[in-house]
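The freezer alarm interrupted the setup, so I double-checked each line after restarting. Inputs confirmed:
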Amino acid sequence: MNNDEAEIRSLLAEFTGALRNKDADSAIALLAEDAITFDLAPPLEQGPDATHNPALLGEWFQTWKGPINSESRDLKLDVSGNVAYAYGLQHMTGTKIDGQEVDLWFRATACFRREDGQWRITHMHNSVPFAMDGSERALLDLQPE
Amino acid sequence: MNNDEAEIRSLLAEFTGALRNKDADSAIALLAEDAITFDLAPPLEQGPDATHNPALLGEWFQTWKGPINSESRDLKLDVSGNVAYAYGLQHMTGTKIDGQEVDLWFRATACFRREDGQWRITHMHNSVPFAMDGSERALLDLQPE
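Predicted 3D structure, all chains:
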């Protein structure tokens, strides 16, 4: 693993840690100024104002009882110059305030740019597929093969 | 726009053209050997064997009556060295063989690597968000703001 790869893995670990600790400011500090997110929840896209708004992230944090755990599996990573991307399956677990136990596998892609010597997240795309059987159901119970 | 950006935009246009013409071999020729896709339909991920299988793409093509149109909006693109990524909202329109008119906005992220002087697609992630109201419904009727 080269230095850039190590830095990006460390950045992702920091982001995951900020989610676990429900620390919106620390998570947002890892984003590039123009960061755009395609998330599990609507809308279609969150632009830079939304991705940098700690109140929005805070609202989501408040729907969880304890820590929000998110673990990556088989992360693929490519870096060259000042641009990088990473993707893999992500396993999110925890308890919502209504007592619901979350145990969700989803797909996560993240993109990065180095600005003034610091790697930052420019884009995140999180999703599950949906059933093509006419039910239009989001598939929240899929497991990796 | 520099040369690399122009080459990647041209690669994406070629891919879109291959889908429109239902030309599985031409679409697959644009993929890197290790390409992994997170698509609208299950499974969670399609590994290199699945992404390079023209029969799988062909099955999907056969569910459409005429051309499959897919247009990008506000595509963001970053390139450095031999790595790049692009993302934006995608508008897919066409008619399924059962007469259903498709008019779908979804989120698309694509990653690229230059190998032996040629840019190739290493990863695609296509999705819609899902409703967090307990219905677990995939949101297929969202429009860009």
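Quick read of the result. Strands of chain B lie at 31-38, 69-80, 83-95, 101-115, 118-127.
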